[in-house]
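Checked the freezer inventory, then went back to the computational side. Two predictions to log before the end of the day. The first one is the construct we discussed on Monday; recording sequence and tokens without edits.
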Amino acid sequence: MQSVKRHTVYFLLLPDTLLIDMAGPADALLFANRYQQDIQFDLKFISPFPQIRTSVGLQLGDLLPLPQQLEADAILILPGLVGMEFHYDTPEEQAAIRWLRQQVTPGNRLICICSGALLAAHAGLLSNHAATTHHDHCRDLAKIDSSIRVEENRIFIEHGMISTSAGVTAGIDLALHLISQLAGPLTAAAVARNMVVYMRRAGSDPQLSPWVMHRNHIHPVVHKVQDAITKNPAHPWSLPELADIACTSSRHLTRLFKTHTGVSVQEYLTSLRLSLASNLLTQTGWSMDRVAQASGFGSARQFRRVWGNFHDESPKAYRAPQGQAHH
């Protein structure tokens, strides 16, 4: 039996924390725990204050104190705060900044949501990094540390182990990206569907992920077939096999699928396989044969041929710059 890998996730909370910046990513991580058992996220809510009032006036109490030491592989999330100006000048806030300087190491994943990037910048954690934040605070971020390469109009930016996102709901996009990296794209897609949010390919890409595209219909039979495909896109699916799952004929399933999704069964399956392959190219060092097999293609040759119908660059060329970006 495969052992469970646990990730401790700390949410650092200050007065006026935007509730959605905390609750959205927290719920996404907890949903990920329910959809699979191999990767589990242990959430802890810490603060220099024993209790805080959030952006909506809700009091949060029994918050854990700032730990004396972070685990080497801990994940730290900094939600944003409500308001237009952030001075971080109270003794407790200054203590949080000092704690960040002392405790966050290169091995820790740091996730800054919205204006949470400003807190990280005050602690010197974003120096010489590319970063983004809510569009209202991009100039503020640049003023705090001129070495930060502030990029506007981005959903989120990942620079090594540090990620920053734009405002409010972009924190959920970033949480889905984290889940995809640690628990796999299928889990992230399942979480996105459950939360009824779009899962984006990357922080700079406005196109929707194929894992959640073509799902904005309500036909239960088509959803049942799509669920089967998304659980195992590498399986050698045949139309008769899928028709058996749908308890209908191949011809009727073909008509239903096209009517309610806008694409054919084969087009849908191919889009998922290519998306899975692109993730394997950038997140593993597998050979092309192994990537092709794990993605449901008969051979590396067939994979390259199908890939070429949708991409201008080869799989090898796609892997090179993407892989470098993750180091």
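The second is the one RB wanted added to the comparison set:
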Amino acid sequence: MINFLEFFLKYVGYFFILYLFGYVTFLIMSVTIGTITLYNNRLLHKYKNDLKHDFYVPITIIVPAYNEEVTVVDTVKSLLNLDYRLYEIVVVDDGSKDNTAQVLIDTFNLHQVKKPINQQIKCKREKAVFINSINNITITLVRKENGGKADALNMGINVSQFPYFICLDADSVLQHDSLKNIVKPILENDDIIACGGLISISNDMVIENGHVKKYKLPKNLLVCMQILEYDRSFLASRILLDQVNGNLIISGAFGLFKKDIAITVGGYDTTTLGEDMELVVKLHVFCRSNDIKYIIKYVPDAICWSQAPESLIDLIKQRRRWYIGLFQTMWKYRALFLNYKYGMISFISFLYFLIYELFSPFIEVFGVLTIILSFAVNLINVPYMVFFFLIYAVYGAVLSLVAFFSRCHTQNYKLSIMDMVKAVVLCLFEITFLRFIMSFARMLALFNYKKKREQWGTIKRVKN
């Protein structure tokens, strides 16, 4: 029995060395390319070599809302102050049980109209439509039967008047120049069908009319760790995958899509919790299957400020929802696995998401259980294990800090000494503790993923 355990633990050790080597290699490439890209973008802006234009792509901003009376008015107000000329705002109230619709009607003096809606994409029926125009920007509020976030987005697409649409969460605020930046790839290349922006956490930030007046790390330490995690993800890996047209996710908090092709593929899938990822993967599959030239871009200069969960319970609920959506999408499009027909999407993007996103919670929890077993039967070299874990922690923390400080530097945010110290300390806790807590939560999510799969995920909203 002991011999078998020795053999088993030996090869488990080999597996984890290979697994971590692959993950670290990807992170190094991601952070390096991400940092270089941000630095080059800053030089272009500094020397005025970036694209300047007087042509504005007409855009519909769709804001799906469910019980968002606390934040939705501020979100719409922020949208009225964007440095952009040609856009409309469509808010879809998906059967809210609070005063989401009424606060919008009262604040923006919306009046009810009889407006037939052409359902190019199937969705639940509308109950009422309200409209007003403020500073030549049309605000449309649609009250509809509850059908979930994807269904609300599909309603927004049906209502939209313009050829491009942006999906924006009701607790989010766009930076003043976000629309200008996110449409630049479209003006440069006709093959662009979708663009994703950078999601930054807004908790405790001072943002006025889309301008960041004061940047600081929040008092809530859990939110601080999420900021470091976001930077490592959004600012690093997505820039790397962008080099091979391989991004499989455009965050539901801020993404731009070409409307006609989104309608052609059937819009957002109402049967999955990961409607944002599902749509992007569906666009990849559709275009490649039909030999359509296309590009899906990531635009780190287009910034959206969004609230992050401030309690561990809310964070776990959010990440479980994300993970179930990932599982549903990966399973639905499992034909992408090592399929030469889909090129880099199959052999780089899909494989990465499969191993280091979908399987990672199980692998990491299995690793923890293996360590416990090894310790129990006295088959572990404790000094070596501690040394190996410290290397992993420090290496991951350094990469997180590089991503964080690179973003702050290229966006001209001034950090206090206390914030710098806080970032250095908390990055170690994020990589060693929070990551494993989230791994357990995501793993357990699959055991009841069929429950409430079409309902909105809710977290407590606060005013900044």
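For RB: DSSP finds 13 helices and twelve strands in the chain. The CA atoms of residues 228 and 400 lie 6 Å apart. Let me know if you want it refolded.
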